[in-house]
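The following record pairs a protein chain with its ligand, guanosine-5'-diphosphate-alpha-D-mannose.
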Amino acid sequence: MTARRALITGITGQDGSYLAELLLGKGYEVHGIIRRSSTFNTSRIDHLYADPHLPDVRLFLHHGDLLEVTRIMVLLNKIQPEEVYNLAAQSHVRLSFDEPEYTAEVTGLGTLRLLEAIRQIGLECRFYQASSSEMFGSSPYPQDERSPLNPRSPYGTSKAYSYWVARNYREAYQLFTVNGILFNHESPRRGPTFVTRKITRAVARIKAGLDKFLYLGNLDAVRDWGYAPEYVEGMWRMLRADEPDDYVLATGTGSSVRDFLALAFEYAGLDWERHVRFDESYLRPAEVDSIIGDASKARSELGWEPKVALDELVRIMVDADIRLLEVGRGSEWVDRPRWPGNEGHVR
Ligand code: NAP
Ligand code: GDD
């Protein structure tokens, strides 16, 4: 039997790395698009990568960018994936206020480029769009698939555009497109400028005596934080469903940034109020005050259920950041060591 073939855009990101791991574990041949960089940008997937000259390799990386449609077409044609997961995005909400046009190009138009390329070359594949709870913005919580979209940032508006493009290609051209509307999900691989990882990294550094203070913006915002590896399992389930549809993935529990801070510092035996300072540059011109998801549809139709609650998530992330400092690897994530004998190559 030949392996099912998947293409992941954004494979070097938090979710892309966990999804690659999941699909390789399920026997898939996985292709990922990475951007050219003057430094290595594959630290999250290095443990999965094996020399393509070796036998039975199932992970392949290709240079490309959602800004260049010709390259995307060439890659789609060459790889002929049966599943495409579009995870690539300028995904930072605060930054999207400073770079709205670039964010719209990648996070919005990037999806259109990909779907139109699929349509033009007549590729038969299932398409996952990484939609976001940020699209709900000021809609009252709990939010589910029927909640109105009221985005409050250039990132949110770009994701809303992509959400509608994915739906439109489903309706107009009968493409199998699904929107996974995911609420915040975190892990030791979370980018260090998102608030959870910024906090757990600071906790480790303060505990080690390397830093004294952590500078943050709005502590009152409420988010529904889940554990990323569980969410990529949900993405896969959506693409394996009989019919294309849209699904919310969330824990259903809301907590404030302040709650997260208290849990993380307390776990390390520290008092957060002695170490946290306010910096207004981290405030946003418009804030999403509270988002809490209702994932009943994913539970009943896909059998998806999150198991890791916030206190466990905090422990996983703080422990990982403390370990990172101990092995002297700065801000690089390391939840699977790469020393000899534990290379983690999936073959
Ligand atoms: P992430 O860690 O920021 O990863 C984003 C990925 O997109 C990286 O691999 C990045 O490559 C790639 N990328 C950025 N611009 C690109 C471009 N122009 N062309 C090709 N690739 C590009 O994000 P994540 O947390 O894994 O999230 C995955 C997706 O889900 C994103 O679309 C995000 O917006 C969405 N989402 C995330 C959450 C969450 O809580 N994590 C919730 C809802 C939706 P580099 O490594 O080279 O930068
Ligand atoms: N990043 C950051 N840095 N956020 C801070 C800080 C800070 O210093 N201080 C307070 N916050 C608050 C933000 O104002 C926001 O209300 C909350 O912490 C969460 O911010 P982020 O961790 O940056 O995540 P986000 O909710 O804005 O966006 C994430 O989740 C979305 C899903 O709802 C990203 O992963 C998006 O890509 C994703 O779509």
